């Protein structure tokens, strides 16, 4: 089945282990377009000139500890500056990708970056019950099986929340930032993809 997109870009924000990449990949396959997630990191490295390990650590995980030091002690100005430079590099990559054709962008405040740039997009937020996300986390990170999965998930969620708050100026789970919020745990992946397709594209006869 062929689809005609109603929007030039689709963005997906998500809780950790709420199947964001899985849904993006399925959508991209059905629509015949590209999706970008980890690729951001490598493109950002090229654009920013930062070492790859630094970008991986900082690109979407601004820790509360570093933010506290920045706000209260003022001793991490250069560290904060590296965050900002990496974000600006990622922003440039996101805008460039949208110029290359229709695509799906996962995370990195893409919805707000595009909004501020005046680029139309359909913005999605995916979430799921913690027990479902714990099960998913155990599947993709088998080395975590004997550790506190819930604590790990909540830490990554919090890191992303801090990152979004800093660079988007609002809360990552604020529904006003999105066209639709979906509980992937209740709907299931197939139904989630089907629902999104019905909103972002129409079938070609």
Number of strand segments: 7
**SS element count, helices:** 10
Q: List the helices and strands in order.
A: EEHEHHHHEHEHHEHHE
* Overall body shape: globular
Distance N to C terminus: 9 Å
CATH architecture: 3-Layer(aba) Sandwich
CATH superfamily: P-loop containing nucleotide triphosphate hydrolases
Structural class by secondary-structure content: alpha/beta
According to CATH, what is the class? Alpha Beta
Q: Do you know the CATH topology?
A: Rossmann fold
Order of neighbouring strands in the sheet with most strands: 3-4-2-5-6
Question: If you had to describe this structure to a student in words, what would you say it looks like?
Answer:
There is one protein chain. The protein is of the alpha/beta class. It has one domain (19-194): P-loop containing nucleotide triphosphate hydrolases (Rossmann fold). It is 57% helix and 14% strand. The protein has 10 helices and 7 strands. The chain has helices at 20-31, 39-48, 52-58, 64-73, 77-99, 110-116, 130-140, 149-168, 184-187, 189-200, and strands at 3-5, 9-14, 34-36, 103-106, 122-127, 180-183, 201-203. The strands form 2 sheets. It has a 5-stranded parallel beta sheet, sandwiched between helices. Helix 1 (20-31) crosses helix 10 and helix 2 crosses helix 5. It is globular and about 50 Å long.
């Amino acid at each position: 089945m062929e689809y005609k997109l109603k929007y030039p870009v689709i963005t997906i924000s998500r809780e950790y282990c709420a199947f964001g990449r899985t849904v993006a990949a399925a959508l991209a396959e059905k629509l015949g377009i590209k999706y970008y997630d980890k690729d951001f990191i490598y493109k950002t490295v090229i654009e920013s000139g930062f070492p790859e390990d630094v970008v991986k650590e900082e690109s979407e995980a601004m820790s509360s500890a570093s933010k506290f030091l920045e706000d209260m002690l003022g001793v991490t100005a250069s560290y904060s500056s590296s965050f900002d430079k990496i974000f600006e590099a990622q922003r440039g990559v996101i805008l460039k990708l949208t110029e290359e054709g229709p695509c799906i962008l996962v995370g990195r405040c893409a919805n707000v970056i595009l909004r501020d740039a005046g680029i139309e997009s359909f913005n999605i937020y995916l979430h799921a019950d913690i027990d479902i996300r714990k099960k998913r986390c155990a599947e993709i990170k088998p080395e975590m099986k004997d550790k506190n999965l819930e604590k790990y998930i909540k830490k990554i969620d919090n890191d992303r929340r801090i990152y979004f708050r800093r660079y988007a100026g609002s809360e990552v789970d604020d529904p006003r930032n999105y066209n639709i919020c979906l509980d992937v745990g209740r709907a299931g992946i197939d139904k989630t993809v089907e629902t999104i397709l019905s909103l972002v594209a129409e079938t070609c006869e």
